[in-house]
Amino acid sequence: MVPLVLALSVGTAVVTTSRQTPTYRTSATLAVVPNATIRDGAELLRSVETLDRRTVIATFAQIPSTERIRVTAARDVALQADSLGDYVSQAFVIPNTNLIRIEVAGPDPARAAAFANALATTTTSEAKAMYRVFDMTPLAAAVRPTVPVAPNPRRAIALAAILGAFLGIAATYLLVRPPSSPSPLA
């Protein structure tokens, strides 16, 4: 019984993962810095103190997730509106830094990288329009990923093997256990 259930669960995992569309993930990183044109020391100090309060950088990190920015960036890389939903993007502040990472996951690795870079460029322009005392500098452009992040056949097969072994043992126990004897109090 155990080998049969184990084979069925592993086989199901293999078939399921082979039919899934691969998903590729890439990221671009931006640094938020005071504008280089600020010459006044007091104004420069205020802009650095403002960055320390984290509200500005947290605001900047929300820009790439807005629908308007996503649509604008998609247009810049010729990503059709009907396929925009295939590309999931998120941005977050790297803890204890003034760095923002923009991640994109999607079915086409080249398009995912181009979309992440377009989001970084569009976010930089939008942030500059919002706060002229800050600039966003690209630190790392998104590169084309070579290995998909999903599906992960090894992980799926390992989990299926564990689950299959457990279910096989449970099924064997339920089928082979002796009938319960009547209670002596009955």
Describe it.
The protein has 186 residues and is an alpha+beta fold. It has helices at 2-19, 41-52, 55-62, 67-76, 109-130, 153-176; strands spanning 24-34, 88-93, 99-106, 134-140. It has a four-stranded antiparallel beta sheet. Helix 1 runs antiparallel to helix 6 (153-176) and helix 4 crosses helix 5 (109-130). The longest helix has 24 residues, at 153-176. It is elongated, with a radius of gyration of 26 Å. The mean pLDDT is 90.
User: How far is the first residue's CA from the last residue's CA?
Assistant: 35 Å
Strand sequence of the main sheet, in spatial order?
A: 2-3-1-4
Helix tally? 6
What is the N-to-C succession of helices and strands? HEHHHEEHEH
Provide key terms for this protein.
6 helices; about 15% strand; single chain; alpha+beta; about 50% helix
Summarize the structure.
The chain has helices at residues 2-19, 41-52, 55-62, 67-76, 109-130, 153-176; strands at 24-34, 88-93, 99-106, 134-140. The protein is α+β, with helices and mostly antiparallel strands and 186 residues long. Helix 1 runs antiparallel to helix 6.
Strand-helix topology:
Layout: H1 2-19, E1 24-34, H2 41-52, H3 55-62, H4 67-76, E2 88-93, E3 99-106, H5 109-130, E4 134-140, H6 153-176
Antiparallel strand pairs: 1-3, 1-4, 2-3
Helix pairs in contact: 1-6, 4-5
